[in-house]
TrEMBL record:
Residue intervals of the BHLH domain: 40-93
Record-linked Gene3D superfamilies: Helix-loop-helix DNA-binding domain (4.10.280.10)
Matching InterPro entries: bHLH_dom, HLH_DNA-bd_sf
A molecular function (GO) term: protein dimerization activity
Protein name, UniProt field: BHLH domain-containing protein
Organism: Caenorhabditis brenneri
Region called Disordered, residue ranges: 1-38, 120-151
Residue ranges with Basic residues bias: 12-38
Lineage: Eukaryota, Metazoa, Ecdysozoa, Nematoda, Chromadorea
Length: 151
């Protein structure tokens, strides 16, 4: 048995064990091809936007078909009003369920009256704008520059 110093033993031990980053050094670097950006034409953008709007419109029509008193309405109802009425209808259903669970079957509020109120304000706004345009006037503006249509 030969005697070796402590430093030699450390070196001997290190020789058998790979260095920490040794495995990285052995790998060959990968050469990746750069991905080229797909050029989107104006036609493709327009088609995408048309498809997006079509999806939104179909969704709003589906929502409209689920709201009572709006399903077979002959007049056009704006998407904004449909969304507001959907929110009101969800509140109505939530309150109705709460009262039903509590044993009170009374309606929390008259949803049909809510629909009529929202639609009436829409018709008033349209008729007032039409009257202003017929008189040659423009929409009234407040100090902030926003229109005074109550929305």
């Amino acid at each position: 048995m030969s005697r070796t110093s402590g430093a030699e033993q450390k070196n001997k031990f290190r020789r058998g064990r790979p260095k920490k980053n040794d495995h990285r050094e052995k790998k060959k670097p990968r050469i990746r091809a750069r991905k080229t950006k797909k050029v989107i034409t104006n036609e493709e953008r327009c088609k995408h936007e048309r498809d997006r709007l079509k999806e939104i419109t179909m969704g709003v029509e589906e929502l409209k078909s689920r709201i009572p008193y709006l399903q077979h309405r002959p007049k056009r109802v704006s998407q904004e009003k449909i969304l507001k009425l959907a929110i009101s209808y969800i509140r109505y259903l939530r309150e109705f369920l709460r009262q039903q669970i509590a044993g009170l079957i009374e309606e929390p509020f008259d949803f049909e009256a809510e629909v009529k109120r929202v639609l009436k304000t829409e018709e008033k706004n349209k008729s007032s704008k039409k009257n202003q345009q017929d008189e040659g006037g423009e929409d009234t503006k407040d100090n902030n520059g926003s229109s005074d249509d109550g929305v």
